TrEMBL record:
The glycine cleavage system catalyzes the degradation of glycine. The H protein shuttles the methylamine group of glycine from the P protein to the T protein. The glycine cleavage system is composed of four proteins: P, T, L and H. The keyword Cytoplasm does not apply. This is Glycine cleavage system H protein. GO terms for biological process: glycine decarboxylation via glycine cleavage system; protein lipoylation. GO terms for cellular component: cytosol; glycine cleavage complex. It comes from Kytococcus schroeteri. PROSITE patterns: BIOTINYL_LIPOYL (PS50968), LIPOYL (PS00189). The lineage of its organism: Bacteria, Bacillati, Actinomycetota, Actinomycetes, Micrococcales. Keywords: Lipoyl.
Length: 126
């Protein structure tokens, strides 16, 4: 399994990549997509919608189950990956690239300090 060192993680299996100006791109980890199996549908949040940290912000549906995608930070959705409507399998094939789910502009910057680095995240999987 792959856990890039340049990303931040949550214990709920989301990853974050800083995009600049307080915006973070969010997706689910390699571990999560593997556990779900073949992804067949992704429910995206709406641009402009606001969430508190740990709110359910979307869903990933696979051939095995449906799983919530949680907002790792409080803030406003600034972009969603509309390509997942046609190619939800990108969550499986490229979870850290084309399989990203949404971008969020953080409203509580102190929450970033609670995120995990790759080493701390992988320790939660043992």
């Amino acid at each position: 399994m792959d856990y890039p060192q340049d990303l931040l993680y949550t214990d709920k299996h989301e990853w974050l990549r800083e995009a600049g100006d307080g915006v973070y791109r969010v997706g689910i980890t390699d571990y999560a997509q593997d556990a779900l199996g073949d992804v067949v549908f992704v429910t995206l949040p709406a641009v402009g919608e606001t969430f508190s940290r740990d709110d359910a912000a979307g869903e990933v549906e696979s051939t095995k189950s449906v799983s919530d995608v949680y907002s790792p930070l409080s803030g406003e959705i600034t972009a969603v990956n509309d390509a997942l409507d046609a190619t939800p399998e990108n969550v499986n094939s490229d979870p850290y690239g084309e399989g990203w789910i949404f971008e969020i502009k953080v409203s509580e910057s102190s929450e970033v300090e609670d995120l995990l680095d790759a080493e701390a995240y992988t320790a939660t999987l043992d």
